[in-house]
Amino acid sequence: MNIELTPACMDRPLFLRLARDYIETLAKFDNRIRWDEATWCSAMWRAKFIMDGRTVQGFAMVEETKFDFYPPALYIVEFFVVPEERNKGIGMEAVKEITKNWHGDIYFYVLKNNIKAMLFWTAVAEELGWKKTARPEIDEENGCRLMTYNVK
Prior knowledge:
152 residues; alpha+beta; Aminopeptidase; 8-stranded mixed beta sheet
């Protein structure tokens, strides 16, 4: 397996199809989640396809912040592996690729009812040796848990 990240803006129709699949998956956990093509079109510039060779296996949206008055932080804003490719190590390899040169805090939200995602991120953190920096915070308004880890 050779996972690479490539800009999703190279194939807008494919990205929007994957994003719609992602939203449909999330809506199973929170019925307030709705598809909004305009939102995803405007966010496409920061998305990366998760590629295994020449095959798109999902996408990730990651934002890095660096301010003089705060430590650097990496936000894994969205993360999606197509259902038929899950549990094959692709997600783990993609996270390794995303974080390979990162040193600092990592933040990501997980829908509080999405137990599989919670288990995935917990396994990722354990395998990669990330250290928890705080208990997961529950955002009741948005139905999410904010998970925070530190990468050395």
